[in-house]
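Q: Please design a sequence for this.
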């Protein structure tokens, strides 16, 4: 198997140099080059259309990261953008009072999300998880939080602790996905003080295989929450509008007391929702102050309503799941036929709309070189996947895109076997 020629990413690297003088780290957070394969991946995109993106050097890729989740239909969806443009040109969107479009969106969520007796809208997933925690603490009059998964960058949950006094997260305890025993042990110790259990309903840790809920895990968490008088919050920021329109709670049939949504909800426009039981949500009337200048900005409400309308009308998630299954079947066939699980320790985890190729850790730490070589082969072939984060399927990925990707993964694994072993 031949090595793929290196991409020209000169402009990306020049722009990164420029950015580093202006912005700490050049670009923020998980989009920094060391979160990919440094020197191989582009750093700046210039545009996207459908399931494809183009970087500033003009290289085109099939986009399997989908902006880390928001892109569920595709980039530059005309119908959504036209709805937004219409609002800009004919009504306006940033006022001192709220436009009634919020009521329409809340009514829509109420009909599709099982836990949504009431909703409120914020801008980001971190806003939403933090709001839910505050409402739950106010409702229970307790302070302890049990958490499982990534919930954003705010003080109570971010992993990197720089700039955060310990007292702002000392009442937060972490348990692992599918480890009900760990949650139970924590609750035995702190149950009386526990305000909320916040967890992703699907296991999607960074740089590790994804996990479906073990039988009884989600219901078990709900039973424990109720036993100890805590609020169960599903963090559906990734699973919402992707596993099903009503989230993982609908797909797995376990309705939490509260849930939060974001990412795919507006196909790229910045919106997130906190949904939940009426009595808990009503803490937001007086006890809890929820306000930001831009929360009522209605462009993202328009985008969310349009996204949901299209998803319902065109059965978008049925198509996404069919495409995702086609992709997963193809990749699994390649892995089995080549014996790559045994020889390279590669595995595909996840479910149709979101899946991840990881290399099992080995003592000699070959997995790191295998991972970098593999993902380098993909990016050089025009396939944008993330070495440390699962990917997503969107509506606009074509069967040709998927088949090309499956074929390239086959070549890439042969190549890794040849050069790394
Ligand atoms: C499960 C989950 N919760 C919360 C967040 C935070 O969302 P945001 O990055 O929009 O603040 C994320 C972001 O990746 C997420 O995946």
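A: Design:
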């Amino acid at each position: 198997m031949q090595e793929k020629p290196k991409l020209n990413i000169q402009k990306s690297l020049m722009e990164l140099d420029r950015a580093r003088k202006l912005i700490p780290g050049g670009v923020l957070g998980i989009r920094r080059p060391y979160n990919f394969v440094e020197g191989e991946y582009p750093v700046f995109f210039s545009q996207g259309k459908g399931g494809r993106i183009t970087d500033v050097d003009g290289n085109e890729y099939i986009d399997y990261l989908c902006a880390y989740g928001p892109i569920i239909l595709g980039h530059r969806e005309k119908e959504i953008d036209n709805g937004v443009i219409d609002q800009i040109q004919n009504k306006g969107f940033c006022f001192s009072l709220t436009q009634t479009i919020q009521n329409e969106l809340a009514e829509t969520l109420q009909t599709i999300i099982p836990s949504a007796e009431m909703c409120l809208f914020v801008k980001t997933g971190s806003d939403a998880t933090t709001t839910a925690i505050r409402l739950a603490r106010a409702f229970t009059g307790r302070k302890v939080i049990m958490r499982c998964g990534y919930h954003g960058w705010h003080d109570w949950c971010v992993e990197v602790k720089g700039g955060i006094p310990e007292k702002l997260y000392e009442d937060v305890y972490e348990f692992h996905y599918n480890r009900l025993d760990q949650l139970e042990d924590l609750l035995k110790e702190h149950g009386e003080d526990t305000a909320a259990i916040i967890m992703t309903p699907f296991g999607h840790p960074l740089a590790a295989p994804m996990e479906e809920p073990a039988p009884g895990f989600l219901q078990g968490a709900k039973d424990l929450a109720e036993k100890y008088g805590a609020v169960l919050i599903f963090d559906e920021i990734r699973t919402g509008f992707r596993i099903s329109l009503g989230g993982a709670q609908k797909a797995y049939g376990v309705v939490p007391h509260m849930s939060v949504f974001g990412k795919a909800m507006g196909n790229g426009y910045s919106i997130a929702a906190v949904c939940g039981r009426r009595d808990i949500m009503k803490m937001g009337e007086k006890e809890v102050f929820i306000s930001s200048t831009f929360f009522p900005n209605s462009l993202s409400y328009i985008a969310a309503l349009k996204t949901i309308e299209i998803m319902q009308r065109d059965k978008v998630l049925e198509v996404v799941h069919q495409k995702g299954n086609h992709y997963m079947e193809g990749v699994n066939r390649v892995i089995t036929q080549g014996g790559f699980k045994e020889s390279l320790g590669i595995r595909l985890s996840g479910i149709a709309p979101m899946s991840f190729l990881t290399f099992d850790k080995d003592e000699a730490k070959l997995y790191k070189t295998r991972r970098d070589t593999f993902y380098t082969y993909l990016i050089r072939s025009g396939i944008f996947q993330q070495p440390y984060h699962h990917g997503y399927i969107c509506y606009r990925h074509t069967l040709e895109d998927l088949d090309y990707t499956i074929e390239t993964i086959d070549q890439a694994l042969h190549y890794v076997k040849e050069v790394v072993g």
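Q: Thanks. Anything notable?
A: The chain has a mean pLDDT of 98. Residues 68, 124-126, 129, 149-152, 200, 235, 237-238, 262 surround pyridoxal-5'-phosphate (CB under 6 Å).
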